[in-house]
Amino acid sequence: MKPSTIKKKDKKLWAGRFSEATDPLVDIFTNSISFDYRLLPYDLMGSLAHLNMLARQRIIPGPEAKRIRSGLLEIQKEWNQGKLTFPLEDEDVHMFVEKRLRKKIGPIAGKLHTARSRNDQVALDLRLYLRDQIRDLKMELQSLQKTILETAKNQGHLVLPGYTHLQRAQPVILGHHLLAYLEMFSRDQERLSEVFRRVNSLPLGSAALAGTSFPIDRTQVAQALGFSQISPNSMDAVSDRDFVIEFLSAASILMMHYSRMSEELILWSGLEFDFVEISDAFCTGSSIMPQKKNPDVPELIRGKTGRVYGHLLGMLTTMKALPLTYNKDLQEDKEPVFDTVETLLNCTRLLSGLWSNIRFKAEVMEKAAETGYLLATDLADYLVKKGLDFRTAHQVVGTIVAYALERNLELRDLSLATLKTFHSVFKADVNTVLNLASAMSQRNSQGGTAPQQVKKAIREMEMRICSLQFDL
Amino acid sequence: MKPSTIKKKDKKLWAGRFSEATDPLVDIFTNSISFDYRLLPYDLMGSLAHLNMLARQRIIPGPEAKRIRSGLLEIQKEWNQGKLTFPLEDEDVHMFVEKRLRKKIGPIAGKLHTARSRNDQVALDLRLYLRDQIRDLKMELQSLQKTILETAKNQGHLVLPGYTHLQRAQPVILGHHLLAYLEMFSRDQERLSEVFRRVNSLPLGSAALAGTSFPIDRTQVAQALGFSQISPNSMDAVSDRDFVIEFLSAASILMMHYSRMSEELILWSGLEFDFVEISDAFCTGSSIMPQKKNPDVPELIRGKTGRVYGHLLGMLTTMKALPLTYNKDLQEDKEPVFDTVETLLNCTRLLSGLWSNIRFKAEVMEKAAETGYLLATDLADYLVKKGLDFRTAHQVVGTIVAYALERNLELRDLSLATLKTFHSVFKADVNTVLNLASAMSQRNSQGGTAPQQVKKAIREMEMRICSLQFDL
Amino acid sequence: MKPSTIKKKDKKLWAGRFSEATDPLVDIFTNSISFDYRLLPYDLMGSLAHLNMLARQRIIPGPEAKRIRSGLLEIQKEWNQGKLTFPLEDEDVHMFVEKRLRKKIGPIAGKLHTARSRNDQVALDLRLYLRDQIRDLKMELQSLQKTILETAKNQGHLVLPGYTHLQRAQPVILGHHLLAYLEMFSRDQERLSEVFRRVNSLPLGSAALAGTSFPIDRTQVAQALGFSQISPNSMDAVSDRDFVIEFLSAASILMMHYSRMSEELILWSGLEFDFVEISDAFCTGSSIMPQKKNPDVPELIRGKTGRVYGHLLGMLTTMKALPLTYNKDLQEDKEPVFDTVETLLNCTRLLSGLWSNIRFKAEVMEKAAETGYLLATDLADYLVKKGLDFRTAHQVVGTIVAYALERNLELRDLSLATLKTFHSVFKADVNTVLNLASAMSQRNSQGGTAPQQVKKAIREMEMRICSLQFDL
Amino acid sequence: MKPSTIKKKDKKLWAGRFSEATDPLVDIFTNSISFDYRLLPYDLMGSLAHLNMLARQRIIPGPEAKRIRSGLLEIQKEWNQGKLTFPLEDEDVHMFVEKRLRKKIGPIAGKLHTARSRNDQVALDLRLYLRDQIRDLKMELQSLQKTILETAKNQGHLVLPGYTHLQRAQPVILGHHLLAYLEMFSRDQERLSEVFRRVNSLPLGSAALAGTSFPIDRTQVAQALGFSQISPNSMDAVSDRDFVIEFLSAASILMMHYSRMSEELILWSGLEFDFVEISDAFCTGSSIMPQKKNPDVPELIRGKTGRVYGHLLGMLTTMKALPLTYNKDLQEDKEPVFDTVETLLNCTRLLSGLWSNIRFKAEVMEKAAETGYLLATDLADYLVKKGLDFRTAHQVVGTIVAYALERNLELRDLSLATLKTFHSVFKADVNTVLNLASAMSQRNSQGGTAPQQVKKAIREMEMRICSLQFDL
User: Fold this and answer.
1) Distances (CA, A) of D336 to A304, A306, C316, C406, D94
2) What are phi and psi of C20, to 5 degrees?
3) What ipTM does this complex have?
4) By CB distance 3.0 to 4.6 Å, which of A81, A326, B173, B299 could disulfide with C328?
5) Which residue of the set A70, A228, A279, A286 is catalytic?
6) pLDDT digits (tens, 9 = 90+) for A232-274
7) What is the pLDDT of residues A349-394, one digit of tens each?
8) Which domains does chain B have, with CATH numbers?
9) Which residue of D has its CA nearest to A256?
């Protein structure tokens, strides 16, 4: 942002009442064209719909509308061909288009701004943009869901420890563990759809803040642009950024889920856990340590969680205590959205790639599940089924664990005779309880880790994933 | 939190394998009973449903179940009578209930914990609590909506300046301004309903993390407790706190709306704006300045916005990068929810009270709307209707404003002759444009401030508010 | 917060100009006595200093000052004896004291408020409180530093893997690892001292916002209360809360450090790493899984990080865009400070206790350091010393690692002959490089992990810790 | 970030042990060159210092060092001439330099990386960068301080209302009000200096995490680069980002101050307050409303507060619970710093410009100070000086205000006779109290608004501002 990058410019389009030119630093500081140029295709889309309506309502004569339209289409073509550059002195994408149009077709370009203001125009552009991006994001997330589901189907039977407090707790199968993430993502899809519904409302026609005296037809514009709703109050329409915050909030929760998954991938790929091998293609090395293979992708995803949380908080702060209606502070709504969209799309695609190229180390995982008394709960449940109350059973088994721990034994290493010294109800059938496979198949409650439950859950999840709708 | 407040205690219920007592400081630090006692009625409700299911599934014999039930009901009665105190050494509300039950009915109290863990139990309790609170909050918000709607109906015709950039922009009527807030609150209601739907899912039956080997029936429990869903994956069920974050996010947006409204109330009640008089009952004075009457209520609401944002951010931070499943960190989920619920209920009630006791100063408001060239846009639109393109019209009027400003005149003070010096198309009919009432009635686009539009919008809003559902 | 808990009360002390009583809900909502009672000893301390000055300046006659003083001292005694209760209708701690004083000594109690306002009074109280708490916190942190230093001295020679990206990177000794934390804490001590300096400024005498017309002597008061500075501008003094935010910021960084340490303690105490055994006294068990011993303390500390971040963020939000001077929003400054102080003191004490009762598993740690090619960098450095450029050396060793990995060998398992096939400069002296002890003693650069460096660093750290000053 | 923008590239410099190429998406995702190119001059500066040390320590032969040096200087020249472009496939600024150097001077380029790692290198670069930026920021802030001080000196005598709760409270003079901001900025300068001191520590020589076996001399490097300290622990040095968070925290407080000042500028420039006219050069207009002149600059500054808070929070989140030492998450430290630096520099410069071009409306301000009973406290103090206790005096004046309010009178409009009906001690001398000028000159306590106090405070502030040091 060096002053020299701004050329001496012609008077601003809004500067009728001004007697002094804007300070060059102010031009740079208040400009948004350096980032809102991304909205250009949406700005054109909105302008075309507005123009058609103005023409149909005879607010602009047909022939003039035709000329304006052809001008706009030309700009659209230039954008598609990557020909446009965006000088800072054009302030924002809206002024850029108006000035460019004026160059092409002369002063009647000025007729396009009839019955609208930048206030409702920018709200429109951002909604059009976000609608597209949410659709894309939902599709990328669906891909990730499918990839993980595929893993759950192919390798879901592998046994590993389930953890609480990062301490081995009870054995689970991989499919069960992966379904936990798929549940999270299902909720993310839901939340994104809900945000989408509130994004999908037409603000155009609210003009500066109070509506317009021209006989516009907002329904026409809404239909042309595919909006399911028309904003019912013009003052709200130009000052509402709930949809931005909601999106950032849904994005933050999604990133939180990614950070949890990333944490596990990082743990699992270290030598201590050693449950997985992430493909070389998703790791990087060290500039100094030749042996290093680092799980950079999940690490960076975990790190980017802070970035997205920061955007959410920033936007909430910006909106705090703003009086109605539009305030310049609202210009700060765009960059966090753009950056969050890009971050989410990248993280989602990367995780899809990573999960397609991961190798599980079945033996290491299973061995871990066999070590650390993960069947102690089963032993307590066994005692309960023999008539003890659960709390007493828990105490008995706790004492057995302490005994085994001291001797460096696992539960399955204890003889029936030894067990009997802790409680007389132990019988030979206790052996079936202390077997990993049978123990897991016992946890057959709805939503439990028993393979038959997991198989059912995978089938249901598959249907849920495949029936996701993106023509929201 | 002084160590002396913890009494020497009996061994922990889970301490079978432990050889050393917990450090007293640890007991204090890790206890949650000092705040989660609020969940007691929900814990009992959940325990009763769990117990009935255990009995019906013959996991616990009927007569034992009967004794446990009567014990639980006794505790419920004690709670209702305000008789209970919660010593820190009881750790949490679950252990408190189990110990108290044991005192009443002996060791069979231990049977109640069959087929469940504190992990699924606390998730259940928090969901039951939040379900109730969201319902209450939605009802209080509806009251506020009705109060403001009433104001819109009674005083909606008053004229005041609409602002952008906190500069007078275009005249609006009060009803239009108030409807902007009602639109925000409508979205808040929607969001709360969506959160509610995801809160309303039964986690119980997930046990520690992997389900249970007892033949439980989760559907029975869900029906008994009125849940519309059963959590499909046990690992997710015990580690998911999305619903907490979602609630805090919806709460943050609601507080943001309150902060905007509060800002306006503060501005309006100062001598500079002087649009309203807030009732003495909603203001306080100064300990030193005898003349002061301060708008403490909206100020404090605005201030509490930070508190709720902080809770959202805190919870997002806490959840970042936690591996599955339950981690002790999750204990931090309760206080932010309790405090947010209390804050929101209070703010909502206070705003209802404040709006019921506010007096608008019609003359001051209208005078403000007449000063500051608020009809300049109308003048530009007039020129457009005479055939100028909007951009040129804008320039012409900008110059007229500069001219008037220099002479300390308003637009209506300029003679037709003077106007004609700026552009020849000005005709005598320009007078109708420069009239406040007629100008506003012209802004008759859908969602605009024209009185007929506002009246229609009020009718529709009334129907939306009255049709809100709380048996979600 | 139920309306019923407020009793019908006498007219407010500030209510001369008010014609209506405050709404009961407002009383509850705007009260701060429910939390600011903690400031009572500081309020008294400040009032006594103010009183003495008023007397010495002859603003209050000596005999009256004497009566007021004895009244204040009586209240102080009641506080020390734990006799006081704080009814909500007393609004805040200042009004509580004034009313209680009035009950004891009659209307001359009202003279105490001469030349001051609650605005400067509350700023004073909070600064006095925070000054004390920062001192305490610094002392507790020093204890923790000493405890960890002790561990570094006693067990600092143990070998463990140093990690980057949570992948084994290079071997380090425990003392070196612990010194990393001690460096963090040294910075925390510095930051707390800096905050202290800015807390330690006297706001009293600023009155409502503009100073006072009474001939007060602020220097006297500052000396009596031990302040090193007098606030130079009254408007700033009553609206400044930088010191609160600074404290919360220093607290957030400290919690961040604790969260990193906690993460490592959690990892290390799991079966996968298995480097440490945390004492039973600092762990808790599971209500359902009898074998569980959970590292609750570090988990909860990690979780509470979010809480403190949330307070920081909340306070920043609250202060955003507040016009000068005092606004009611500022009342929100106390609870986050109180809760943060309590959280930090607890976490610090708990970590001291935990570190005093931790057992390191030397063999497991060393074995981990021997597995995973942690000396690959040493091998590359060996090649550099033989004349290769570092980048080439890195490539050669990378290839060797790939070769060994495929054969499931460590570097030390490779024969000289094998190494020579990768590069001809390998000689017999390569063996000394591939030895853990000698490799570490080689990393003898300043601040490196070589035992002699670490010993020196421990000595220096000990001096830094012991020379910490708390009479700041 | 489209995959197509990455060209098929040569093998990574660290990829000896890798058998698969990095996924193109991963290259894009994990690259930092797209933003860390800003560090290039600092990277070169650090490399040159490192190189010289390596040569002097005979770790690299002199002639080779000479060639490397000339290569580095060439790159420096290219940077200064703006000739460099940074392809994504170069990963980061360090690899960019190494590869470019290799192109220039061949494989001995690889010798430069002897005894260092990217882990200590990036910490160095960021510290060098931030050291420079903090210096710049402190100088820009000093300019702003001087500009405001100038205003205080020239127009400091103007009278305006001082506000609490945004209600008129007591009259102050403009100089007094401005000094409140200058006090804030003085603290900001202090905080920035403190951060600077902790930034100013040399991490280089820590290598990957454990130091190096080469006989480096860190003191030489520190001196060459002007560091006042050498990081005492290598593990801390590569994983410490406290300095980033501290900077963001100091930045957040500064932005908070700017947001408060901006809020006041916005309020004051609206027609309701109408205290100031901001120059046209610092305002912008509306695309639709020809009369609008909006205070965009302060609005946007206020809005950007959220952005900076967000960066602080994001970074705190990213650092939470990271195990030692370097993790890829740390890569997220740069963008928030870059953006915060740019934001702060711009806001500071803009405010300087704005304050140089502001016009105060003395009459409007003074009239506001005369309306609204701003001397009620003076009247109460008058009664106290006549012997009433303050609380009683407050009540009496409160009642007088209520009386005047009802009759739409100001205090000065009340006759002595009327006053006497409220209390008999009122005498003719009461008139002197109810005079704006004399009332203000009475508030002569240290730090008060009396003109003589303010004059003294301005002199002292001038000395403080002029003695600010930037060769920190």
Assistant:
1) 12, 11, 17, 42, 20
2) -125, 145
3) 0.95
4) B299
5) A286
6) 999 999 999 999 999 999 999 999 999 999 999 999 999 999 9
7) 999 999 999 999 999 999 999 999 999 999 999 999 999 998 899 9
8) 3-114 (1.10.275.10), 119-364 (1.20.200.10), 368-453 (1.10.40.30)
9) D317
A165, A213, A445, A467: the catalytic one is: A165
Q: Strand A229-230 relative to strand A201-202: parallel, antiparallel, unpaired?
A: parallel
d(C-alpha B210, C-alpha A447), whole Å:
8
Are B315 and C306 within 8 A, CB to CB?
yes
The shortest C-alpha distance from A108 to chain B (Å) reads 6
Question: What's the pLDDT tens digit per position in C186-202?
Answer: 999 999 999 999 999 99
Q: How far is it, in rounded angstroms, from Cα B124 to Cα D68?
A: 66
Tokens at residue C182, please? 């001690």
Cis before D418? omega within 30 = no
For C107-133, write each residue's pLDDT tens digit: 999 999 999 999 999 999 999 999 999
Residue closest to A245 by CA, chosen among A317, A347, A169: A317
Q: Is the confidence at residue B8, as pLDDT, over 70?
A: no
pTM to 2 decimal places: 0.96
Give the integer Cα–Cα distance in Å for C438 and C447.
Answer: 17
Which helix (H) or strand (E) segment holds residue C421: the answer is helix C416-422
- Locate B184 and state its tokens: 């925000």
| C455 pLDDT tier (thresholds 50, 70, 90) | very high
Nearest CB neighbour to C242, from listed D210, D253, D259: D253
Please report the pLDDT score of residue B348 as a whole number. 98
* Contact: B401, A17; criterion CB under 8 Å: yes
- Find chain D residues with C-beta within 8 A of A317's C-beta: 305-306, 309-310
Neighbours of B151 (CB within 10 A): 18
B76 has a chain D CB within 8 A of its CB: no
Mean of pLDDT over chain D: 94
Cα–Cα distance for residue pair C451/C463, rounded to 1 Å:
19
CB–CB of D110 and C391 under 8 A? Answer: yes
The nearest CA of chain D is from the CA of B378 a distance in Å of 9
Of D214, D235, D401, the CB nearest to C180: D235
Which of D431, D402, D401, D433 minimizes the C-alpha distance to D416?
A: D431
Contact B434, B375 (CB under 8 A): yes
- Three-state SS for A67? helix
Partners of residue B202 on adjacent β-strands: B230
| Pairwise CA distance, residues A165 & C278, whole Å | 14
Interface of D with B in 365-404 (CB under 8 A): 368, 371-374, 376-377, 379-380, 394-395, 397-398, 400-401
Burial code (b: 16+ CB inside 10 Å, e: under 16) for B298-337 equals bbbbbbbbbbbbbbbbbbbbbbbbbbbbbbbbbbbbbbbb
Mean pLDDT of A298-326: 98
- Give me the long-range contacts of A54-60 (CB less than 8 A, separation at least 24): A54/A111, A54/A112, A54/A114, A54/A115, A54/A214, A54/A216, A56/A217, A56/A220, A57/A214, A57/A215, A57/A216, A57/A217, A59/A114, A59/A115, A59/A214, A59/A215, A59/A216, A60/A111, A60/A114
D58: alpha, beta or left? (left if phi > 0; alpha if psi -120 to 50): left
Contact B391 A98 (CB under 8 A): yes
Facing residue for B212 by CB, picked from A109, A320, A443? A443
Closest CA to B404 of B414, B415, B395: B414
Give percent of chain A with pLDDT exceeding 90: 89
* Known active-site residue B257: no
CA C43 centroid distance within chain = 25
Residue A100: Cβ within 10 Å count: 18
Q: Looking up tokens 């549940």, which residue turns up?
A: A183
* Interface probe, candidates D245, D289, D329, chain A, greatest A C-beta count within 10 A: D329
- Check CB contact under 8 Å for B164 and A377: no
d(CA A357, CA A281): 8
